[in-house]
Inverse folding.
């Protein structure tokens, strides 16, 4: 899940909420949407291999 921050950056959050904090984990912050999407694809790849 990618969200745009007020600063103009994009942050990747986990899809599921963390049961301890009841919030989504921050998986990285990026300058552009393309960078964030590229990294999200890498995360999904490593989750399934």
């Amino acid at each position: 899940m990618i969200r745009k921050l007020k600063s103009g950056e994009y942050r990747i959050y986990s899809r599921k909420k963390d049961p301890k904090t009841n919030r989504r984990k921050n998986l990285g912050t990026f300058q552009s949407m393309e960078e964030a999407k590229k990294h999200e694809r890498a995360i999904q790849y490593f989750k399934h291999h």
The mean pLDDT is 96. The CA atoms of residues 19 and 25 lie 10 Å apart.
